[in-house]
Design goal:
Elements (H helix, E strand, L loop, with lengths): L5 H20 L10 E8 L5 E8 L3 H13 L1 H11 L7 E6 L2 H18 L5 H5 L1
Parallel strand pairs: 2-3
Antiparallel strand pairs: 1-2
Helix pairs in contact: 1-3
């Protein structure tokens, strides 16, 4: 199976959905922030490994605790994933902290701060 095949894309989507359900509803670890979401999942073509990109809304301490909690619950998550998805191999999950949403919000705020200091240009000024 190739990396960007239709089958691999479908498996990635299914694992993403089930992983989100497991993290949101079935894990009771107090270290895991309730505002945790699975941004993306990349399952290897041989179905042996999986990278799960996790986004956590909160401070740096909360992000570290959430990743630690997910790593400690990895066996349970993998078992639940095996029960809900019928795959030949249940992939070994690696959790990676994804800060792209936080970075995007920070950049939007910086752009907004810069543009509010600029004077408004009217349409008459642009015609000259």
């Amino acid at each position: 199976m190739r990396k960007n095949s239709i089958k691999n894309t479908r498996i990635n989507g299914e694992v993403l959905r089930e992983l989100s359900n497991i993290i949101r509803g079935e894990i009771k670890d107090p270290r895991i922030n309730p505002m945790t979401s699975v941004v993306a999942v990349e399952v290897a073509p041989d179905l042996k490994t999986c990278k799960a990109y996790i986004s956590v809304l909160g401070d740096e301490e909360s992000q570290k605790n959430t990743i630690a909690g997910l790593k400690s619950a990895e066996g349970y998550i993998r078992r639940e994933l095996a029960h809900s998805i019928n795959l030949r191999n249940t992939p070994q999950i690696t959790f990676i902290l994804d800060q792209s949403i936080e970075y995007g919000v920070k950049m939007s705020k910086m752009i907004e701060d810069v543009t509010k200091d600029m004077p408004e240009r009217s349409e008459d000024d642009t015609e000259e």
